[in-house]
Design brief:
The complex is a heterodimer of chains A (166) and B (103). Chain A is mainly alpha-helical and 166 residues long. Helices cover 75% and strands 1% of the residues of chain A. Chain B has a domain of 67 residues: Orthogonal Bundle (Helix Hairpins). The relative contact order of chain B is 0.12. Classes of the chains: A mainly alpha (166), B mainly alpha (103).
């Protein structure tokens, strides 16, 4: 059952991620990216990360992607024009990317042989209670710094996006 | 055991998503699509954090993923504001046309 769930949602994630890259119109890429994030939330749940799965859906698929879609609609951005890129660039770029992927997969398989297995319920430390306790004790300082970061981001976004006053 | 997923499959899925994100960042010319590719890369990294949290049976990986999410939210807000400003001034989203810092 876990295997079927993993295969289905990993497949959705990969297909949607390919769609993000190949789609010509930004809004199609954004919708595909939401599909990637949703299926990743299911995989987080499979790994016992209930809080992060909920945060993934609410923060990523909810807030961030709505922001993206909003900006795409606001700018009324059309489809991408034909890229005038050199033939040599794609001749070099594609093999380098495949090599990167192969290297990552190869060392992953070397370091983690398939005897370590994931099954639902194998890790129960990812509840909101456990995450919250760690967040407000061990990781309190990073958490507080995060709030300052968010404040700076809000102020920066407003300063950047406001109308210039004459 | 049947029905269980090897841990390395999660890491390989993460590697695939990461590579696709890098590919999108390099090959696409639309600044918004490039930005979305960065989000894809961050998601791939998050999956790695959660997988290692499972493997080590520690909640710390979840917290790192949480912080990555917060930074991504801040980055999206500022980045989209920059994109808005760029579009207002230059009327284009094509990254090849934004070369005012070139000579």
């Amino acid at each position: 059952m876990d295997l079927i769930l993993f295969l289905v949602f990993a497949g959705i994630a990969v297909v949607a991620a390919i769609n993000v890259v190949v789609q010509r119109h930004p809004i199609s890429s954004a919708i595909s990216l939401i599909a990637v994030m949703g299926s990743l939330a299911v995989l987080y749940l499979l790994l016992g990360a209930e809080f992060i799965a909920a945060a993934q859906v609410i923060v990523y698929a909810g807030a961030i992607m709505v922001l993206f879609v909003f900006v795409i609609m606001l700018l009324n951005a059309g489809g991408e024009t034909k890229a005038g890129r050199s033939f040599v660039a794609s001749l070099l770029g594609v093999p380098v990317l495949v090599a990167l992927l192969w290297l990552l997969a190869y060392y992953t398989a070397r370091i983690y042989p398939s005897d370590t297995e994931v099954h639902f319920g194998g890790f129960r430390g990812g509840t909101a209670q456990a995450v919250g306790r760690a967040l407000f004790t061990t990781y309190l300082l990073p958490f507080e710094i995060t709030s300052i970061l968010i404040l700076i981001a809000i102020v920066g976004a407003i300063v950047l996006a406001r109308k210039e006053l004459e | 055991m049947m029905g269980h997923v090897p841990l390395s499959w999660f890491l390989m899925l993460s590697a695939v998503l990461f590579s696709l994100g890098v590919a999108g960042f390099i090959f696409r010319r639309n600044i918004i699509t490039m930005f979305m590719s960065i989000e894809l890369i961050l998601n791939a990294v998050n999956l790695t954090f959660i997988t290692f949290a499972y493997q080590r049976q520690q909640v710390a990986g979840h917290l790192f993923a949480f912080f990555v999410m917060v930074v991504a939210a801040a980055e999206a807000a500022v980045g989209l504001a920059i994109i808005l400003t760029v579009f207002k001034n230059r009327e284009t989203l094509n990254i090849d046309d934004l070369d005012s810092m070139k000579n």
